[in-house]
Amino acid sequence: MRMVDLIAKKRDGKELTKEEISFIVEGYTSGDIPDYQMSAFTMAVFFQGMTANEQAELTMSMVQSGDTIDLSAIEGVKVDKHSTGGVGDTTTLILAPLVAAVGVPVAKMSGRGLGHTGGTIDKLEAVKGFHVEIDKKEFIELVNKNKVAVVGQSGNLTPADKKIYALRDVTATVNSLPLIAASIMSKKIAAGADAIVLDVKTGAGAFMKNLEDAKALAQSMVNIGNNVDRQTMAVISDMSQPLGFAIGNALEVEEAIDTLKGKGPKDLEELCLVLGSYMVYLANKASSLEEARRMLQEVIENGKALESFKTFLAAQGGDPSVVDDVAKLPQAAHKSEVKAEKDGYVSEIVADEMGTAAMWLGAGRATKDSEIDLAVGLMLRKKVGDEVKKGESLVTIYSNKEDVQEVKEHILKNISISSEKVDAPSLIYDTVQKSN
Ligand code: URA
Ligand code: CA
């Protein structure tokens, strides 16, 4: 087989075979295929797309390029959730203990934040003592015992994806639907998921800025999952404005605790109940989505979800008493309000720009090596559709530096107030299941 022929085949819009796709993935990972040929190939895919079969083969070739996590020692169906990334997305912190409380095993591999999006591990580290440095054996024991544990990303998972993603980044081929779909699904499958629930975001804060693209991406990933025998479902959710109120590590932990108590922001709670219902259903713990939702509501009401969070924190060295006393979380030295400059209705809160503002305060990393400040961030006081009076607070800034003028101006520039009444955006636009 010659790479040049395979590039030509894709350029001409033909379907590649399983053998051809694994030849490309293996060859590129090992260094036998040079960057310039792989660049031409990814560009050909960008223009010609890939069939469902090709996407499934690409995904599995990338899975096989490195280590895979074997979770077979954990009882039950391991369901993973993946969000395509957003701002103030506190769902994992809530969902992990929430679905664990109804008996769904959560063996979660998580990452750190970069740029305007946060990472689950950073957020959890706002709890004093919490760490993810546990070995494989302990991880599995904890999931069997408590139904939930979180570890950091292991070194050699999907090396093919790492290398291809880096190449796409500099060849203007990141935004190719089949390549994104295979990239995300390969990582979930390598991490050991039996079933996968996807939260595909759409709007300013998301990869997919419009609904149509988000739906197409969701459908591709759902088809890949089902084609390789991992039951997969997706919801398309709004990321035009940040989710919930809190953006920032300790602030989001507090928001997660509130939500587990049934006192969280309504949008965040609803998204957690929807995603959680799918997880419970795919794990065969409920016979319908309605039953799954009732089970989740019950463990919020009877305190079991909160108890599960405490157990999980303590098992990984964290201080569980923060749950009853959130003042023990890292606290910022200064608070200041971003005030509305006129009366009206909030019509837009640009999600990724709020993420950027939080990053400037130190809540996120500008580069991979930046240090983050767990205490700082933003609390939205208004959401899209809310009425606001001139001088009322739109956002509270929590900072450890006194001068936050630049951040304030950036926030004001990215929140629009209209004189006309505005409807709150839909939270969930659609759900996607296997197509026949
Ligand atoms: N996220 C991923 O993991 N891969 C992509 O290709 C795009 C977004
Ligand atoms: Ca939030």
TrEMBL record:
Its cofactor is K(+). One of its GO terms (cellular component) is cytosol. It catalyses: 2'-deoxyuridine + phosphate = 2-deoxy-alpha-D-ribose 1-phosphate + uracil; thymidine + phosphate = 2-deoxy-alpha-D-ribose 1-phosphate + thymine; uridine + phosphate = alpha-D-ribose 1-phosphate + uracil. InterPro entries: Glycosyl_Trfase_fam3 (IPR000312), Glycosyl_Trfase_fam3_N_dom (IPR017459), Glycosyl_Trfase_fam3_N_dom_sf (IPR036320), Nuc_phospho_transferase (IPR035902), PYNP-like_C_sf (IPR036566), PYNP_C (IPR013102), Pyrmidine_PPas_bac/euk (IPR018090), Pyrmidine_PPase_CS (IPR017872). Its EC number is 2.4.2.2. PROSITE patterns: THYMID_PHOSPHORYLASE. Belongs to the thymidine/pyrimidine-nucleoside phosphorylase family. Homodimer. Catalyzes phosphorolysis of the pyrimidine nucleosides uridine, thymidine and 2'-deoxyuridine with the formation of the corresponding pyrimidine base and ribose-1-phosphate. This is Pyrimidine-nucleoside phosphorylase. It comes from Priestia filamentosa. The lineage of its organism: Bacteria, Bacillati, Bacillota, Bacilli, Bacillales.
